[in-house]
UniProtKB/TrEMBL annotation:
<dbReference type="GO" id="GO:0005739">
    <property type="term" value="C:mitochondrion"/>
</dbReference>
<dbReference type="GO" id="GO:0045494">
    <property type="term" value="P:photoreceptor cell maintenance"/>
</dbReference>
<protein>
    <submittedName>
        <fullName>NXNL1 protein</fullName>
    </submittedName>
</protein>
<dbReference type="Pfam" id="PF13905">
    <property type="entry name" value="Thioredoxin_8"/>
</dbReference>
<feature type="domain" description="Thioredoxin-like fold">
    <location>
        <begin position="31"/>
        <end position="131"/>
    </location>
</feature>
<dbReference type="InterPro" id="IPR036249">
    <property type="entry name" value="Thioredoxin-like_sf"/>
</dbReference>
<dbReference type="InterPro" id="IPR029520">
    <property type="entry name" value="RdCVF"/>
</dbReference>
<dbReference type="InterPro" id="IPR012336">
    <property type="entry name" value="Thioredoxin-like_fold"/>
</dbReference>
Length: 183
């Protein structure tokens, strides 16, 4: 999925840090379901949905709710009129959100690519860039966090939180006598 943002700049929410190198983007987006949220802090529909989306995102990624964060990343594509409106909106959202910088020309390309006519729109993508759901707003409103499992299965994500069998064999021993104790 990082290929969609190759050569582009994403901002880490609230810190104003840029996530722009291939390696940083790869780490942030690889093997994850990507949500592209086209919205505005000023739109009444968006305000209502944003509260729901914030709760949805936190329930899947915050350690308070889950033991392990879900393989999920969200990129906010602002439809706000000013940069201050975008900053104000993002301050009220989770820190883990990424955002396209205000005024970035790539925003228009994404709007055309995913046929965004009105907001809010939440596009759900596989790690390879294929669309899972063109607009998941209604799905999230109806199912809540339960819909993520369907997306995860559709995306065929590899759970990297567990060691594969071949990785287990390569683990270093705790001591020289460890193999003898195992016998």
């Amino acid at each position: 999925m990082a290929s969609l943002f190759t050569g582009k700049v994403l901002m880490a929410n609230r810190e104003q840090d840029e996530v722009e190198t291939e390696r940083e983007l790869g780490m942030a987006l690889e093997n994850k379901v990507l949500l592209l949220y086209f919205g505005s802090g000023q739109c009444p529909k968006c305000q209502s949905f944003s509260k729901l989306l914030k709760d949805f995102f936190l329930r899947l990624t915050d350690e308070f709710y889950v033991e392990r964060a879900s393989q999920l990343v969200l990129v906010y594509i602002s439809q706000d009129e000013t940069e201050e409106q975008q900053r104000s909106f993002l301050r009220s959202m989770p820190r883990k959100w990424l955002a396209l910088p205000f005024g970035d020309d790539f925003k228009r390309e994404l709007e055309l690519r995913f046929s965004v006519a009105e907001v809010p729109v939440l596009v759900v993508l596989k790690p390879n860039g294929e669309v899972i759901v063109g607009n998941a707003v209604e799905e999230i409103q109806k199912l809540g966090p339960a819909c993520f499992q369907n997306w995860q299965e559709a995306a065929e994500l590899v759970d990297r939180n567990f060691l594969l069998a071949e990785e287990w064999d390569e683990q270093s021993r705790r001591s020289i006598t460890d193999p003898i104790r195992r016998l």
